[in-house]
Design a protein that fits this description.
single chain, 108 residues, mainly alpha, 0% strand, elongated
């Protein structure tokens, strides 16, 4: 079974279990649904970490399989492009400053 399906069913199961327990305790339906949502969210966050990590790994594997660069590779390429653009700008500014200084020296 796919990890995202297991994770979704586990979260849904936690919600339904908490919702039924709250209804059996006599809490109104709409209020039980709100409390069940909050409680299920907390329980899922604390108890389903391994499943959540498997879902994340599956998503990453699918992205790599599609030929898309990983997040780190995409970030590295963007950083390299930005560094090169910055270096070109700095070189152009330095050349302009040097040219201006030479013109001042020639006038003096």
């Amino acid at each position: 079974m796919r990890p995202w399906l297991q994770y979704t069913l586990a979260r849904l199961g936690v919600f339904v279990l908490v919702f039924v327990v709250l209804l059996l305790l006599g809490i109104e339906g709409w209020l039980a649904a709100i409390f069940a949502t909050i409680i299920a969210l907390c329980v899922s966050f604390l108890a389903l970490g391994r499943l959540r990590q498997r879902v994340a790994d599956d998503i990453e594997a699918r992205r790599r399989g599609a030929g898309a660069p990983t997040l780190a590779e995409g970030d590295a390429e963007a950083e390299d492009a930005e560094i090169e653009a910055g270096a070109d700008t700095i070189a152009a500014e330095a050349a302009a400053d040097t040219g201006a200084a030479q013109q001042r020296d020639e006038r003096d």
